Amino acid sequence: MAPNLPALYELHFAVPMAGATLSALNVSLDEQALTIILHQLRPKIIFVDSELAHLVSKVIHNNNNTHLLENHHDHQPLLVTIHDVSLDRRTQWDLEVREYEQTVAMGESDFQAMSPTNECDPISVNFTSGSTGTPKAVAYSHRAAYLNSLGLILRYNMGKSPVFLWTVDMFRCNGWCFTWAMAELGGVDVCIRNVLAKIIFDSVQLHKVTHLCGKPTILNMIADSPPVDQKPLPSVVDVIIAGAFPTNPVLKRVQELGFDVVYGYGTTEALGPALIRPWRSTQHHHHDEDEDNDHDDHNLKCREGLHNITLEAADVKDPTNLQSVPSDGKTIGEIMLRGNTLMAGYVGDPDATQEAFSGGWYRTEDLGVRHSDGCIEVIDRARDIIVSGNNWISTLEIEGVLLSHPDVAEAAVVAPYTVVGQVPRAFVKLKEGRCSKTEEMAEFCADRLQEAAKVPKTVFFGDLPKNSTGNVQKSVLREREPMLVHRRSTAS
Which CATH superfamily is domain 138-381 in? Predict the structure, then answer.
């Protein structure tokens, strides 16, 4: 449990070489979530950043948790702290535990690395975000991690001796498997504790970074950075993002600063991005398309493209009969994946594993369409899609428009499950020092959305509820929404 430190990178090799299984944990987990996860893992050793040692120790030594966290040898896990040498201070605490470098020094110089007895044995366990319930423990096999790492090298054209800036958390799908891919290429890993625009520009200039990846918020961070932080780049930097598709102004600004963007779609169960597509400011349009139409241009670029070369197949299917939907860009189905670069299964939950792979395909529970060029476009999560009459409304599309507003920092769109003819309602967090009104936001959306049914009729302003992994809890917003409507109508 540590941020992107060299020790965490080393453990991605040391742990499997010792014949053990690695689980990199989210550093934002609260006490309750950490207790649940450690109970599932029953670890023998916990390596923890010194600034998080108090939290982990509290969970381990809690009298109510002691028995739950004991491993199969009936011992509490050994705690080993990692001190970040980049910090000006060493965190002081009174726990009697081992320290990482001292522990490494105790190792045997002639130790022989242990190979897995079966390539399908687990190399790591990663946890889903838990945005709809308890996080699921997702097991990756040595085979899947190996093949996915090779796929990254081929798909992202990483070349020889790349320099990778660690802006994606290593606890997210083992850094999307770039941990292992970089070692395969003999590349340089630049580990940073905090992801800030100034640190990104300074690192790129100092270390000649070639690649970085993470959430789309990284692009917003780069685009909105003050000019004083925007150092000239020694060469073009390839950026791989996955999540809600950024707006064109952000993408164009980032490209002007020297970054090339590749957009990906994936899940924890797919070891990270499985579908990818480069973004370019100039795309080939058909003769009947208006090149000045920013909305059409955005739709063209936000398709997720084709699947990784090491993934057998990706398709959009009718979930009831597993028939592929027409490639018309309109017929909605469920995005499904199959191949060797998927999870081995959910740890301790064979029923959920069987359900996830029902019919021989991994069912993502994401809705999408397939276009005539073969590319897949994600529409929404099945549980988030808004049904209004015969129309299916994507919350992702509305959120993308809201996020393009210069005053908006975060946005989430929901509709209550219980309402027939659902109406989208937006929850918006404004940037610091900015102000706006419902009418202004609705008008902004109406100018950019093609259908009136997609325009939020109500917009609420404030902080958005998030889980311990930083994902917006839309289920909480759905429960909160009727109360807010009542309060708003009463206030008016």
Answer: ANL, N-terminal domain (3.40.50.12780)
- Report residue 307 as tokens: 């699947």
**For 156-167, b where at least 16 C-beta lie within 10 A, e where not — what string?**
bebeeebbbbbb
Structure tokens at 197: 């625009």
Write the CB contacts of 418 (distance below 8 Å, at least 6 apart in sequence).
none
Contact 285, 291 (CB under 8 A): yes
Secondary structure of residue 338 in the 3-state scheme: strand
Predicted model pTM = 0.87
- Tracing tokens 């807010």 back to the chain, one arrives at 484
Distance, in Å, from the CA atom of 440 to the CA atom of 452, rounded to the nearest integer, reads 15
Which of 96-105, 294-303, 411-420 reaches the highest mean pLDDT?
Answer: 96-105
Q: Return all residues near 467 (Cβ < 8 A) that are at least 6 apart.
A: 33, 129, 130, 131, 473
**Mean pLDDT of all residues belonging to the chain:** 85
CA dist., res. 220 & res. 247, Å (int): 9
CATH architecture of structural domain 386-491: 2-Layer Sandwich (3.30)
Pairwise CA distance, residues 398 & 386, whole Å: 11
Q: Is 411 left (phi over 0), alpha (psi -120 to 50) or beta?
A: beta
Half-sphere exposure of 309 (CA within 13 A, CB side): 9
Angstrom distance (rounded) from CA 377 to CA 393 = 14
Q: Where are the domains of the chain?
A: 6-115, 138-381, 386-491
- Amino acid in the structure at residue 4: N
Q: How far apart are the first and last CA of the chain?
A: 48
342/127 Cα distance (integer angstroms): 14
424, 456 Cβ separation under 8 angstroms: yes
Which tokens go with 203?
């690192």
Q: Which of 99-108, 169-178, 445-454 has the lowest mean pLDDT?
A: 445-454
Give φ, ψ of 98 to 5 degrees: -80, 160
What residues have CB less than 8 Å from 51, skipping those under 6 apart? 84, 91
Structure tokens at 193: 């504790």
DSSP bridge pairs for 127: 137
Burial group, residue 274, by CB count within 10 angstroms (0-12, 13-18, 19+): buried
Q: Picking from 152-156, 278-282, 289-293, 328-332, which range would have the lowest pLDDT averaged per residue? A: 289-293
And the tokens for 321? 């009969």
Is-contact 242 156, C-beta < 8 A? no
For helices 142-155 and 178-185, angle between their N-to-C axes, nearest 10 degrees: 70
Q: Answer for the pair 314, 337: CB distance below 8 angstroms, yes or no.
A: yes
In the chain, helix, strand, coil percent, each to 5?
35, 25, 45
Using CA atoms, how far apart are residues 19 and 117, in angstroms rounded to an integer? 9
